[in-house]
UniProtKB/TrEMBL annotation:
SUPFAM superfamilies: HSP20-like chaperones. It comes from the Bacteria. CDD domains: ACD_sHsps-like (cd06464). Residues 28-141 form the SHSP domain. Belongs to the small heat shock protein (HSP20) family. InterPro entries: A-crystallin/Hsp20_dom, HSP20-like_chaperone. This is Hsp20/alpha crystallin family protein. It comes from Ornithinibacillus xuwenensis.
Length: 144
């Protein structure tokens, strides 16, 4: 019998017993997130370094920023074919990763570079016009 089929059957039985959300608690343990990242913060800037080996076409990675969320999409493919895998620690495949940032960032001041298998994403803090107040107009309603 196929060992992967046994694993699928086992997981289905566990899902039935514990509920389908059971595995979500173990996602980082059973399937580590890719790409791996480091996030560094200063007073007004963030630097996100993402580990994406083998990237030969920079159009194969998508980077999106929305207020305080950084989204990375792409594929990690180290390009080796042939042979039987004895040990596999370099995670590969399609990825989509959302990273919650510690503060909102500017949409107009983002720089991304790639060097030695690492993507460097520089982000700048969004500084609001806190001195500017918007006055709310109160509308008079007729008495009933």
């Amino acid at each position: 019998m196929d060992p992967f089929q046994q694993m699928t059957d086992w997981k289905r039985n566990m899902d039935h017993f514990f509920g389908e959300q059971f595995w979500d608690q173990f996602e980082g343990v059973l399937k580590p997130t890719i790409p791996q990242i480091n996030l560094y913060q200063t007073d007004h800037e963030l630097l996100c370094i993402a580990n994406i080996p083998g990237l030969t076409n920079l159009d194969k990675i998508d980077i999106y920023v929305d207020y305080a969320t950084l989204e990375l999409r792409g594929t990690i493919d180290i390009g080796h074919r042939g042979g039987t895998i004895v040990k596999e620690e370099i995670l590969q495949g399609v990825f989509e990763r959302n990273i919650q940032l510690p503060f909102p960032v500017r949409q107009d001041k983002i720089k991304a570079t790639y060097r030695n298998g690492l993507v460097y994403i520089q982000l700048h803090r969004l500084v609001s016009n806190s001195g500017h107040k918007n006055r709310v107009t109160v509308e008079q309603l007729e008495d009933e």
